Amino acid sequence: MNFGGKVHGGIVMKWIDQTAYTCARNWAETYCVTVYVGGIRFYKPISIGEVIKINAYVIYTGNTSIHIAVDVYSRNFSQKEFEKKTHCVIVFVSVDEKGHPVKVKKWIPGNEHEKQLEAYAVKLNQMREKIGQEMKPFLEGKSDE
Ligand SMILES: CC(C)(COP(=O)(O)OP(=O)(O)OC[C@H]1O[C@@H](n2cnc3c(N)ncnc32)[C@H](O)[C@@H]1OP(=O)(O)O)[C@@H](O)C(=O)NCCC(=O)NCCS
Question: How many H helices and E strands in the chain?
């Protein structure tokens, strides 16, 4: 619970990571590590006691990376329909026992919707390259302490 009496955002992020990891691991059939999490937008709060549904699905594969979209839904017990509360894309890398990236099997979109998802993943990847360049000066160096 957060100080506002709703489900804590950090807990939702943990569920997202666990669900997405399971999806990536199933696809890769190897151990995977998270290489990028970004753009988590909490559209609406989730109240304590609500039923949660989390969908994770592959939307793109590179050479060694698996891009997983995650949708988080919730509903209270008097509602029939789930409402989407959060969406994000997490990128995992398939690794060997030494932690080195290894090739993954290609995911091929099967219909128009999946083609749109793949194009979305490619676009996000291009945007991430720019974000990475902006962040680079702040990733280098040691702790000030
Ligand atoms: C993930 C890791 C193995 C990648 O190793 P690396 O030597 O940087 O490997 P590469 O540069 O070859 O990149 C591997 C893949 O990651 C992708 N990648 C790298 N940076 C990325 C970013 N910012 N966004 C999306 N994908 C990214 C690359 O595009 C590549 O994918 P591709 O093979 O499909 O093209 C390494 O960075 C690592 O171990 N990171 C820590 C992982 C971890 O501990 N995660 C838990 C978080 S606490």
Answer: 2, 4
